[in-house]
Request: fold
Amino acid sequence: MTEARAPTRIQQKNRAAILDAALEVFSSQGFRGATVDEIAAAAGLSKPNLLYYFPSKEAIHAALLEQLLDTWLDPLRALDPAGDPLEEILDYMRRKLQMARDLPRESRLFANEIVQGAPRIHAVLSSDLKALVDEKASVIAAWSDAGRIARVHPYHLIFSIWSLTQHYADFDVQVRAVLGDEDPFAAAPEFMETLYRRLLSPA
Amino acid sequence: MTEARAPTRIQQKNRAAILDAALEVFSSQGFRGATVDEIAAAAGLSKPNLLYYFPSKEAIHAALLEQLLDTWLDPLRALDPAGDPLEEILDYMRRKLQMARDLPRESRLFANEIVQGAPRIHAVLSSDLKALVDEKASVIAAWSDAGRIARVHPYHLIFSIWSLTQHYADFDVQVRAVLGDEDPFAAAPEFMETLYRRLLSPA
DNA sequence: GTTTGATTTGACCAAAAGGTCAAACTCACG
DNA sequence: CGTGAGTTTGACCTTTTGGTCAAATCAAAC
Reply:
């Protein structure tokens, strides 16, 4: 039994700096494109010093992804079967859009991982993520059955919320290139609210 | 003046093999994550042989992107100001969805490039792409003004079509992990058609 | 069938990459 | 203020990477 020692102040500070730097680098280069030197430099540490805190590049990436997965699924977990159907779904969409605005690097970290085939989180996707989506999709299906929202394919509804919201974080440069000066997040919330109101309002 | 020689049969075959292999590798690893050895192996050539056809890794990537950009924008170019508004937009969405199904590697190549900040195509995005979107957005705005479709933000409408359709190519592994056996493209077309009909039908 | 240009390759380089290690340095606490 | 644990670093190692080059091989037009 190895005794888990309490982390020192320096440890806390440096591990946090490393994770923040790694988020920056991994999210903009992907796993293979990122280098330990780059992360170390961004964290203000030498490479050997960084490797004193994490045993390998893999380990840093794994720590980031693990810590993030929970946060990432929180908005969907909060979808309340007892709430008002349309408002619940709109709130879910709003929370996701908020996350795209506030945590774009985190969004791009996932985007990189998944576009590249999710080699490191595939198992979690088909277990935890699938289980959560299955659960919430059946809630939405029940709302449709009860005539409380229009009938839609619940899984594709959820995919649409993912794709629309994350698009603003993941494809930020493209969106900004097209919009010019206009802030993407100025009109996005209203657009999406309109979209889902029209899609889901019971006929 | 260097005379442009006609490519030999071998040149045609090998350049095509290289571009295909490079598409495979770049789209699943990003630019920095891809290696010349990997591309050469996938093309069935030795590394020096590959570098006989393209001067550098950069050059292969550039050739791929350039060749692809046109194809990628074709569906939007085809949006006809003289056509029926709702059907034109639905057709545009269908063409994009078709491309996500038929050309997922191409979609992921762009996704990687853009998620990683589009360092190599930023200029094209804010010139050619912006110009095209500006043009088509004003067509859509005119349709709204004429009351032929419901009022929506035309730019965000276009973004929504991009994100929804490309999601099925770019996040394929995630979609499949959640859906299990179900084919994503079975229900997607109907879902999206419903979505845009409800969003755009004139009030 | 020979010759000339096109193609292919093995051997090689320099730089960059992930990672190790022993020695040096710092810090907190008794 | 000394000491042991916690921290940092320069030097180093191996592998991988993008790229070069001269020599060898091949194809096809004459």
